[in-house]
Write a structure and sequence with these properties.
By secondary structure, the chain is mainly alpha-helical. Helices cover 78% and strands 0% of the residues. The chain is globular.
């Protein structure tokens, strides 16, 4: 589970979907601990981002303000829908399958539609020049990821491309936006569960956390190299393929 979280968290393919499908295919019994585990091992991925970007963020404090501005819509909507999401959406492979397929189609279509516009604006943008209004809009795009399978990074990245933000800049902004978003989601879930873990569960959590941390660093480095020469179309096709596999698995 830690491997799955770390390798998929920052790719536009939905780490939540992959974690839920992994626990289904591994036949892990559903429990409150498993749900909390799946959410809270994201802390490993968060710390990976902090370690890789802390110097750059501290050298440009304005980035912090823009990241927090983008976080506000997610915080409000996520808090309001927390109970509904955990109770009804996290155990639904059918919702995940359709979210993967629809999201994959949208990625492919948006890549084609915005390709020319992105080339024209690519030289005029950088991470520091993302405006506060753009940051807030990106935050609203991120709220779509409350649906398992949508992908937090995918929603923010495609929304940013639609706003004319350079590909690498919106990817890195998505990394930074993950810090308050996942920290808040993890913190809220741990508070709601009263940290009521047994010693064996704590050992399991630590194992997942460390694995997610290591693999998240590898995932981030891979993604940054990948986008230098490629677009996101391949991830769209991957999502469609995985979604179809899930549907076949559900109905056979």
């Amino acid at each position: 589970m830690g491997l799955v979280e770390g390798l998929t968290e920052f790719l536009p393919i939905s780490s939540t979907a992959h974690l839920i499908l992994a626990q289904q295919w591994l036949r892990l019994p559903s429990s409150e601990f498993l749900k909390t585990f799946s959410i809270s091992i994201q802390l490993g991925a968060i710390i990976a981002v902090v370690i890789m970007y802390w110097r750059r963020v501290l050298n440009n404090r304005e980035i912090i303000g823009k990241v927090m501005a983008a976080f506000v819509p997610t915080a409000i909507i996520g808090l309001a829908l927390y109970g509904f999401i955990k109770r009804y959406l996290l155990d639904s492979p059918l919702i995940i399958a359709w979210a993967l397929i629809i999201g994959g189609v949208l990625i492919i279509l948006l890549e084609k539609y915005y390709a020319k516009r992105q080339i024209k604006t690519e030289e005029n943008n950088n991470l520091a020049n993302i405006s506060y209004s753009q940051a807030i809009l990106i935050g609203f795009f991120q709220t779509l990821a409350i649906i398992p399978g949508v992908s937090r990074s995918g929603a923010t990245i495609m929304g940013g491309l639609g706003l004319g933000i350079r590909r690498q800049d919106i990817v890195e902004f998505s990394f930074l936006l993950a810090i308050p978003t996942m920290a808040a989601a993890t913190g809220l879930d741990l508070i709601k569960t009263n940290l009521n873990f047994s010693p064996s569960e704590i050992a399991i959590w630590v194992t997942g956390f460390i694995t997610a941390f290591i693999t998240a660093i590898l995932g981030i480095k891979f993604f940054l190299r990948f986008i230098q020469k490629n677009d996101f179309t391949i991830f769209g096709w991957y999502r469609i393929g995985l979604g179809l596999i899930v549907l076949i698995w559900l109905f056979i």
